[in-house]
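> example.struct
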C-alpha cells in the first residue's frame, strides 16, 4: 500500500511521493502537488473506498481515468494496480513521442515498457533526456535480477539508458531496521509539456502496488518540474554501476 494522499472535504487533493515520516521531510527529495477540484477529489475518494471497504490492494485502483479540467489545465488521474499496466504504457508513450525533452526522477527504473522506450529514445539521440535515480536501490535491483534470473533481460536496457543519457545517482543508505531513510525518493516524469507526478516508481512492482499518479498537461508546471529534476541531478555524481 504505497499511496500518500489526502482528500479534504471532498474538494481538495494532496498527493505526491512523500511518506509521512521525519526522514521524508528532512533527508529525502520528494514532490507534493495540491489541487482544488471536487471532480478529482471524487476519483480519489472512490479509490480510497475500494481500499477501505475491501481491505484488498489487488482489487483496488479500478477508477475512472478520463481527463478532467482543473483551472483550465487538463489533469488525468491514474490508480494502480487497477490501471497499472495502462499507466506504464501511458508514460512510455509520452516518452516515446516527446520531441524536445524528457526528465525523470525515480528511485528505480524497472518497468519494461518504460525501460524499452527510454532505451530506444536515448539511443536515437534526438531528444534531450536526463534524470536522477537512487544508485543504491538500482544496484539492489540488479542484484535481485541476477539472483532470480527471470528479469535479467532488462539489464541491458537499464544500462543503455543510464550510460547513453546523463543520469545522476544518489548513494543512499541501504535499508536496514533502524537505519535512516535518505533515498532519492521523488517520482516525476516530464515529457515535453506533460508531467506525471505521484507515488509511482517507474517499476514493475509499482504497477502492482496501490499507487496514484496525476498526468498534468501544463507547460509552466513541466518547466518547473524539469528544473527541479535538473537541480537534483546537479547535486549527485553520474550513475556508476
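> example.seq
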Amino acid at each position: 500500500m504505497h499511496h500518500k494522499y489526502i482528500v479534504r472535504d471532498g474538494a481538495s487533493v494532496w498527493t505526491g511521493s512523500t511518506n509521512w515520516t521525519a526522514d521524508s521531510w528532512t533527508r529525502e527529495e520528494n514532490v507534493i502537488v495540491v489541487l482544488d477540484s471536487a471532480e478529482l477529489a471524487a476519483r480519489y475518494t472512490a479509490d480510497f473506498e475500494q481500499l477501505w471497504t475491501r481491505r484488498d490492494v489487488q482489487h483496488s485502483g479500478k477508477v475512472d481515468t478520463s481527463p478532467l479540467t482543473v483551472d483550465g489545465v487538463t489533469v488525468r488521474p491514474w490508480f494502480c494496480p487497477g490501471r497499472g499496466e495502462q499507466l506504464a504504457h501511458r508514460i512510455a508513450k509520452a516518452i516515446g513521442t516527446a520531441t524536445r525533452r524528457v526528465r525523470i526522477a525515480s528511485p528505480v527504473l524497472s518497468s519494461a515498457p518504460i525501460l524499452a522506450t527510454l532505451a530506444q529514445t536515448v539511443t536515437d539521440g534526438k531528444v534531450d533526456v536526463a534524470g536522477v535515480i537512487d544508485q543504491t536501490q538500482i544496484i539492489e535491483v540488479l542484484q535481485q535480477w541476477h539472483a532470480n534470473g527471470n528479469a535479467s533481460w532488462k539489464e541491458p536496457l537499464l544500462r543503455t539508458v543510464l550510460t547513453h543519457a546523463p543520469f545522476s545517482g544518489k548513494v543512499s543508505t541501504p535499508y536496514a531496521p533502524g537505519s535512516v531513510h535518505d533515498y532519492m525518493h521523488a517520482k516525476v516524469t516530464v515529457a515535453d509539456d506533460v508531467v506525471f507526478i505521484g507515488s509511482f516508481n517507474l517499476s514493475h512492482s509499482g504497477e502492482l502496488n496501490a499507487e496514484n499518479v496525476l498526468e498534468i498537461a501544463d507547460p509552466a508546471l513541466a518547466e518547473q518540474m524539469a528544473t527541479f529534476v535538473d537541480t537534483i541531478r546537479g547535486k549527485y555524481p553520474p550513475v556508476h554501476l
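> remarks
The mean pLDDT is 97.
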